[in-house]
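Batch manifest, entry 17 of 40.
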Amino acid sequence: MKVKLTRISSNHRNLRTDEVVGETEDLPEVGHLFIMTAPPLDPANAIRSIVTTPVRVCERIGDEFDFHTRNSHYRLRVLE
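Output type: structure tokens
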């Protein structure tokens, strides 16, 4: 499914951008890594891969998910 990931806060800059639009097969779930792919930031790369630490807290609000990992707080919106 097509999604938009927004970084709300983080104690690192691993994501490199505050928002990423891409694809995921699984929505955030407590105890699991969140994984998505997106077009690369550097055109020399084939794909951008985002993998979080296990989700600690996740709340669904309509078509959005507000979730926390060990180091970050994100919002995920399902686009399609």
